[in-house]
Amino acid sequence: MKPPSNFRGDKYFFGLAASMAFSVLFIFILLLASLVLFSWPSIREFGLSFVWSDQWNPVTNQFGAWAAIVGTLATSLIALFIAIPFSMGIAVLIDELMPRKIGKILARTIELMAGIPSIVYGIWGLFVLLPWVQQLQLKLIPIANEMASKFDALAHDGSWLVAFKPIVMFFIQSIPTGSSVFAASIILAIMVIPLISSIMRDVLASIPSIMKEAAYGVGATRWEVTKKIVFPYAAPGLLGATILGFGRALGETMAVTFVIGNVHSLSGLFMPSTTISASIANEFNEAVGTLYPAALVETGLLLFAITFIVLIISRMFLKSAKSKGGKI
Amino acid sequence: MSLLIKSSITRRIKNQLFTLFCWLTAIVSILVLLNILFTLLAKGLHSFNIEIFTHDTRNLGLRNAMIGSLMMTGIAIIVSAPIAILTATFLVESKKKSRLVTITRFTNDILLSTPSVIVGLFVYTIIVANTRFSGFAGIIALSIIAMPMITRASEDVLYLVSPMLKEAAIALGIPRWRVIIMITYRSAKTGLITAVILATARIMGESAPLLFTSAKNSFLSFDLTRPLESLPVMIFENAMQPYPNLQSLAWTAALMITVFVLLMNLSARWIARDKT
Hints:
A: mainly alpha; MetI-like fold
């Protein structure tokens, strides 16, 4: 017996849905393949040394991604250092300290920050943050000069303290244009705080309240409960949230492009540098020849690989946090 | 005894400091947000007038950029929403936990976390490199960014549809595809709409994928086979210029995009709240 005709629709409908799901796989494979294909001239020319060579010279056709990789990781890591205490503070405040209704309003306001397009953060960074950083840099210049002459004197005396010179100078030397790793990190921190704090809030909310109540019951203060109960319990989840924010910061393009200065080197916190995405956004449309755009696309591939690894790690932590929450 | 009092005082001080720290972080964050919004308003309204709706970017207007942005965002959403919702349906409704489901979900997550500039590069290498900068390329890039977002959000929504409703319909002898369309989609309607609106708001402000795909065009154009101006790319180009009137125009464009995106976010939230 033939099935009624409207049941045949099932086959068509699920066939359609499955083909759409296949299209996701198809796009992903196509993406990888076409990026590899396009960057092939550069892969063939430089081989593996592309990753750790810090040459970036379009004139002599010498390309290496190291400076951009380091710049990407450095800006994102510094951004995390700034963002973690803020996100944690906001998450604890909303979850523990505020009445539920007011906490909700604050949470919504913070979420609004996540909705603002990155280009708007970029233009704000360019016209508001950079002048401010520039003021900071102008104050740093005399200090840097003083330190440099002190180190010169030490070198004259043959003191071993000279060994610290590169480290100290890394943090204080500057070119007073405003464009710097520091500015990029601040912008990135502002952009990832809403993301990290909202995931951290979910993690904190998943802690069984009976554990906290037990601690309060024996007379622990809020800080003690947070330090000894909440943090150890929520650690994998908090870490996962942080790494997820890290992944977001790594790929952020427009906001960073405005404030980083696009120089392929990392010589100091207050010096211009570049990130992978910023150098692509800045240079790709002006890249001529075959090798230059190919090298830029290869840096894009590296960025893709980095964000992929970061995604995997963050999922591992968030998953273990979830399974822990489910057990109790 | 005095030791006990001392320790109780330090404990209380520590606790107070901790509370203070939490409040400070929130206050600083809110202040930064207010600073951004206030600067945006002050600088954006400076060159906001009726002229920006009637002139193109070459005459210090925003007409072509607004039209280009709306066209590309609109078509990209129309293209990506059905694909994404069907993909999500496949992920949710597939009976067996097949390998294909797991792989698709994982791939979707990878695409979701892919930096948008890489999607721009991808569309450049596959389309623009063989033809030229065009609105179509921009639409494809935006669709690829919107698709995983909508898939993810609608998957979550579709999971929440009560299985009893579906089972009741299936028991009546209704084919599953009609159950999905008439029961599942209908009861998940608000969630699906919210997902689509949020994705629209997100791709509206994307500029990195458009830099190498739709590029820029300072004339009014409806031709999708040619370069098309969009608000985010126009902001990027103009803000870097040394001319104050161009910078001011960029601020106005930034204000308009932000207002649009925030309105979208708020309306999505309002729709979602309406249901519960």
